[in-house]
Amino acid sequence: MEINGVKIQDTFAEGFGIKVSRLIITAATKHLAKIAATEATGFATSVIGCPAEAGIDQYIPPTESPDGRPGYAIMICHMAKKALGEQIMDRIGQCVLTAPTAAAFNALESEESFPTGKQLKFFGDGFETEKDVNGKKMHVIPIMSGDFLVEDEMGWKDGVAGGNFFIMGDSQMTSIVAAEAAVDAIHAIPGVITPFSGGMVASGSKTGSKYSFMSASTNEKECVTLKDQVETELPENVFGNMEIVIDGVDEESVKAAMKAGIEAACQVPGVIEIGAGNYGGSLGPYQIHLQELF
Amino acid sequence: MEINGVKIQDTFAEGFGIKVSRLIITAATKHLAKIAATEATGFATSVIGCPAEAGIDQYIPPTESPDGRPGYAIMICHMAKKALGEQIMDRIGQCVLTAPTAAAFNALESEESFPTGKQLKFFGDGFETEKDVNGKKMHVIPIMSGDFLVEDEMGWKDGVAGGNFFIMGDSQMTSIVAAEAAVDAIHAIPGVITPFSGGMVASGSKTGSKYSFMSASTNEKECVTLKDQVETELPENVFGNMEIVIDGVDEESVKAAMKAGIEAACQVPGVIEIGAGNYGGSLGPYQIHLQELF
Amino acid sequence: MEINGVKIQDTFAEGFGIKVSRLIITAATKHLAKIAATEATGFATSVIGCPAEAGIDQYIPPTESPDGRPGYAIMICHMAKKALGEQIMDRIGQCVLTAPTAAAFNALESEESFPTGKQLKFFGDGFETEKDVNGKKMHVIPIMSGDFLVEDEMGWKDGVAGGNFFIMGDSQMTSIVAAEAAVDAIHAIPGVITPFSGGMVASGSKTGSKYSFMSASTNEKECVTLKDQVETELPENVFGNMEIVIDGVDEESVKAAMKAGIEAACQVPGVIEIGAGNYGGSLGPYQIHLQELF
Amino acid sequence: MEINGVKIQDTFAEGFGIKVSRLIITAATKHLAKIAATEATGFATSVIGCPAEAGIDQYIPPTESPDGRPGYAIMICHMAKKALGEQIMDRIGQCVLTAPTAAAFNALESEESFPTGKQLKFFGDGFETEKDVNGKKMHVIPIMSGDFLVEDEMGWKDGVAGGNFFIMGDSQMTSIVAAEAAVDAIHAIPGVITPFSGGMVASGSKTGSKYSFMSASTNEKECVTLKDQVETELPENVFGNMEIVIDGVDEESVKAAMKAGIEAACQVPGVIEIGAGNYGGSLGPYQIHLQELF
């Protein structure tokens, strides 16, 4: 199967469950909203070494946002419910409450939720009040620079982590530029994030290592600079390789994101093949076959 | 004392000790370097609720960077040495090693250091090598998209946290714009960061609360929307109030940053007074008097 | 009439006719598309002293763009048809053809058009070819770095210039931040641009001057720093004043943009009144009454 | 000759004279200064089809700027003195005077100058005043949103246009990323601009054409997609080719920029050769030999 001359491998991405919250951070301007959303979703590429997986889902213009101000939908994800609740509290409390003109809204319809606003309000020391904003129950906390508004509860649900695909190109830079194009496209799909730096992963790993104390290590068979030293899995004409990793609110969102991202990557001259990462189906309950996306 | 018609209060910022590392993150382009540096310094406004305090110190052009590529000097800070070492390992390992074309260099002359590169190299699973880059001992770790270079050791030293000043203006937006100007100026001073979102703090706090379970709460006497409800400390004509918080590699850097930031803030029309936060000198060993900066 | 406590004056914006083209500039990434679109729409705030009025209308994600790549819809406007055609040729030929990976598509359904691609193709010196891209007739011009694609014809139609409103605030910075919020909102409305720097005008003018050689000069009655020197038209509590000027493909688009912009501006704390500029109805055929927008 | 394994061709860039002005545009924040500087230098890639060549030279932090506010040094260039003076007047008058909080300073020591501020002040309609700002004679023009300050005279001098080099890579994207790195490096050199979109030229041209009505056309021998159709000048393993074009205040600045740009480009994996464009020495008085730069 080919898209725009790019071979789509007959393989699948293997995903697994993760608990997901989706919030909208608004502010006086798009510029200020992005600052708060970026800080709140930083240091969150992978739960392996970060306290959460998080990222900006998409920009919400004033005409569509809960309070008529520009905002960014963000997602915060964790394997454990308790840790997710704590991360939301810490990231909102430390990075959004403290940010100029910011407010935080729930942006997920869900059965379960965390009492984020309900607890954060106590920072108001008795000066906090309540306000209805377009049907949402908001706590108004007076802070030094004005009022911080935070929704009473923040929803969470079972989502899907580990959606992924590989962009193999004729050079390292081709794969990077194509990965950037893929991330641009994925931002048009609501309900997904690409939590790594710039939305892309430069360092795929394998489980295990020759060093007994390492549980994971570089996947040398996918490394472009080791093609001559190892039994590579890279096609002969491939010299660039970047992975896109996707977390979503559900499998449909992850599929839509993979489809949009792959189609965009295939528009970049020099992209040769699209692959995906899996563990033979042994690890995760979700198998998203690339060729079935189109 | 006045600067450009703005009153500089006769008060001081009270700082305390913190352990500081300073690194340079380089990449193929300024755009890519910023992406890695931003992710690596996210979720790091205050050690009260974040795993570290971190931020971008300043842009390092290719002509001045350790490997001839554009980079950003970043700082990561923590009260505890052990936690600082772990944060550097996690933030470099999760947010920089994984980022496209990024590399990580030590940027601090210090007596003590963490073995960040020395340990991270094992991710290479035996394919890692060593390389001298302009006198620096770098580990070359082959990753999927190319090679990741990380310096053998990352220095740390005793620095200063809690440098601060308040920008009081004739409106909320005046204080925000002036705070942005202050942060712009502070980026010109090497060795300091303003770790909060956008470099500014919208929510100053006081210790204690009417709620017994809260150890800190909003500082109502500094809140612009509570002027009519409480015994305010804000001048009558002040309706905006933003705080700049600064961490630095030493007291001199923090002083230089406060000076540059205050001078820049005073150029914004509508700024009325500059104050500072302290605990009467009871908490921190550093007392930086505003009027002595000029 | 009030919106969120902000008085909407009982006045109208006076618009006039202008000839408008709308194009989509795509590129390999959003980053590269913005670079080309920004250069192509620069030096174009007002036809009084610029060769055109131009600006970015909105971002077009890969999932919605004519070639599956990220793009920006831009608009270029001029009073004279001939001059508009030349401006499109020059701006595409000098700023888009020359830009990395860029392509230019028509984005206007119209009865009349300019033969932009039809003429630009000759740059290919005989190596140019034709290609159908999703039903669009594109010329493929080999250039140094790859192929430049440009659509055969670029449509133009009679549009509306001079949509406007004034944002009066309690400080200069309030009006600037609110104007930025307004521009953020207007970007969500297709078919309009705000051609001035940052989308806002800091310097409203009146016709005539005490200097005989000046046909226009500062409108002192609207100047915040002249309130004490002249018979001001500004309310007593207003100390900031910014204008948003809008060009659109038709009156409905301009109205929608004014509505969205005003609503967003009214969310910024410190905004006091919204006004509009007109010449008593003597100059332009379009009268857009503020209060009728809501 | 090689730099980091990249062949530096034994050739030279051929430059010619151009008249150059250098200004600093300051504003309340870096963000606002960039907006004004970008608009004022847009539509200015080449005097062949644009009214000027212009671009941002470099960022000037508040600590180094003429009025203590963040700014951008920009350059505006033209072959003809009269046209240059008009361009400065139009670009300052239309794009900077109209921009929020902006001011315009001369940033060139020169023997000759244009009376830009001296003439622009009349927009003040009698309300204009004069002010000394750190030794500079500024005109203060009250505008709607505050005061616009512009320096009395803007200097100009004979500079050098047409500094250039070619970045040939193993793919189109390699050359683009390397060109971006080169532009990042060049921004560290004061007194130069790279006037094309994103600082790079995707479309080198030759004089003449098979079409009699075209005086210039695509340089097919440098086109990566025509390698199989024409007698190419590109090395066999080169599939990407981008040009950097530089204008400078003098030959030394252009040389320093070429050196910095080439060194940065050579750090990007996949770059193969660096070339330069000339007309055999017949056209321009400046011959800058690549290998003599190092």
* Range of strand content of chain A: 35-45%
Calculate the terminal CA-CA distance of chain A, rounded to whole Å.
Answer: 10 Å
Multimerization state? homotetramer
Counting DSSP H or I runs of 4 or more residues, the number of helices of chain A is: 5
| Strand/helix succession of chain A | EEEHEEHEEHEEEEHEEEEHEE
Number of domains of chain A: 2
The helix/strand class of chain A is alpha+beta
Q: Biggest interface, which chains?
A: A-B, 78 and 78 residues
Morphology of chain A: elongated
CATH topology of the largest domain in chain A: Alpha-Beta Plaits
- CATH class descriptor of the largest domain in chain A: Alpha Beta
- Secondary-structure arrangement, i.e. CATH architecture of the largest domain in chain A: 2-Layer Sandwich
Instruction: Give a short account of the largest sheet of chain A.
Output: 15 strands, mixed
Defining key terms:
2 domains; Formylmethanofuran--tetrahydromethanopterin formyltransferase (chains A, B, C, D); 15-stranded mixed β-sheet; 294 residues; homotetramer; Alpha-Beta Plaits; acyltransferase (chains A, B, C, D); two-stranded antiparallel ribbon
Short overview:
The structure is a homotetramer of 294-residue chains. Chain A has 294 residues and is of the alpha+beta class.
Write the layout of secondary structure elements.
Four copies of one chain form a homotetramer.
Chain A: E1 2-3, E2 6-8, E3 12-26, H1 30-40, E4 53-60, E5 71-78, H2 81-96, E6 103-106, E7 112-114, H3 116-120, E8 129-133, E9 136-143, E10 146-151, E11 154-169, H4 172-186, E12 192-193, E13 205-207, E14 216-218, E15 240-248, H5 251-265, E16 271-275, E17 286-289
Parallel strand pairs in A: 2-16, 6-10
Antiparallel strand pairs in A: 1-2, 3-5, 3-6, 3-11, 3-17, 4-5, 7-11, 8-9, 9-10, 11-15, 11-16, 12-15, 13-14
